[in-house]
What does this fold into?
Amino acid sequence: MATGRHCAPGAALASGLALALLTGPLVSGCADSGTADRAGDRSSPATATGPPSPATTSPEELCTRIVAYWSRRQLKGDTNGDYQEMGLSDGQYDILRDVVDAARTEREHGDARAADRLVDQKAREGCREWYRTGGPGKGPWG
It folds into this structure.
């Protein structure tokens, strides 16, 4: 050691052994495998007790959600940013413009509820088609 202190022979070994005994199960990952219950029955399988794995969302569904969100904001006049500020690709912005145009036309006919449903429908259709034909990465701006 660089401190100039000297340990009695075997002291370092004893300290290391004590540390290993205390942390060994944590470090080695050893634990009860769950194959036997506390009564010693080894025939029952282990049961999972942890939380379920989180569900994943497909890129197509993410596209649909973000396009629908920003379409509604544009219909309300609640946004003036460009597609990059919205976090959209050029392809997603193309879908958004089609969605907003269709919904605006529907709303002008006096049916706001139909316009809102149309936002979801057109966003889903546009994103489905976009991913069917290649999605992002197709061309320089996706």
Observations:
- The longest helix spans residues 112-132.
